[in-house]
């Protein structure tokens, strides 16, 4: 575990607010993630702004479409030079294989490619509403198995499933876990949560943390408090 195991989710509506925060950090302190909101608002210019500051960037667009479209989207993400990008595992095996194949021309420069299993905002009850009548952990395991078969680098899951997935697919299968909540913080819309310490103990490789940091009165102090809780 290093400081760079923390991926700060920059879900800001205002680009200046995001850059003001980033300018208080240095690239050895954490990695950064932008998702659908910031990429839709600010596009590749924001990716370049972040890369010019030398941060590793996770482009969290969760592609989910037919194989040809996803392969082209993943190619476009790799062209941006991002550190990590992702697809939805529920897009299926052929889609994930097409995404993986699209990265072959990038060789060593290819981003890590991971797949979202079950969103951390979802519970067993939410799956039932989708007609999926198994506990979340079973569906996560099923989707992670498909992801492993497609030879992607790992999955997005809750830290609650980390122990199960590491024992099923090995230490090299990368686990990226949102739904991280320091003790006492607001869970918001997240349902499958763990504290940073619990997540690391369970086997998470990367802890994605957004609002507990970005909506704190002092985001830098909130990030430093998380390091302290993890003794890094
Ligand atoms: O299953 C998932 C997949 C992605 N996310 C994203 O992670 C961050 C979490 O932010 P918090 O503010 O710490 O809740 C956010 O950008 C989500 O889009 C996720 O939460 N769960």
TrEMBL record:
Its EC number is 4.1.1.23. GO terms for biological process: 'de novo' pyrimidine nucleobase biosynthetic process; 'de novo' UMP biosynthetic process. It comes from the Bacteria. Keywords: Decarboxylase, Lyase, Pyrimidine biosynthesis. It catalyses: orotidine 5'-phosphate + H(+) = UMP + CO2. The keyword Lyase applies. It is an enzyme of class 4 (lyase). The active site is at residues 60, 62, 65. GO terms for molecular function: orotidine-5'-phosphate decarboxylase activity. GO terms for cellular component: cytosol. Pfam families: OMPdecase. Pathway: Pyrimidine metabolism; UMP biosynthesis via de novo pathway; UMP from orotate: step 2/2. InterPro entries: Aldolase_TIM, OMPdecase, OMPdecase_AS, OMPdecase_bac, OMPdeCOase_dom, RibuloseP-bd_barrel. Substrate binds at residues 11, 33, 60-69, 120, 181, 190, 210-211. Residues 5-226 form the Orotidine 5'-phosphate decarboxylase domain. NCBIfam families: PRK00230.1 (NF001273), pyrF (TIGR01740). Belongs to the OMP decarboxylase family. Type 1 subfamily. Catalyzes the decarboxylation of orotidine 5'-monophosphate (OMP) to uridine 5'-monophosphate (UMP). Homodimer. This is Orotidine 5'-phosphate decarboxylase.
